[in-house]
């Protein structure tokens, strides 16, 4: 179900959100911008689902690897593509086996 991902576009997207003090992560301000671009409340279950899919190790931040690998795995290179698949990702929580992973 993965679609073709434009890696250059994905890098530009990461650069939009990355922490100005640390090129290796997206911090709280970048997460807020990411949520704004997705029109998501940062406290919503949806952003937690995204963090789960990105395999984020730390709350309120994504490492460069987590963000890029997560977006690649989901087949997304834009907030619009990610927003389009969020309902499907949220449905996965209804699967007991996947919910345990969450």
Automatic annotation (TrEMBL):
GO terms for molecular function: cullin family protein binding; ubiquitin conjugating enzyme binding; ubiquitin-like protein binding. PROSITE patterns: DCUN1. The keyword Plastid does not apply. Residues 5-102 form the DCUN1 domain. One of its GO terms (cellular component) is ubiquitin ligase complex. GO terms for biological process: protein neddylation. It comes from the Eukaryota. Transmembrane segments: none annotated. Keywords: Ubl conjugation pathway. This is DCN1-like protein. It comes from Iconisemion striatum. The gene is RP42-PEN.
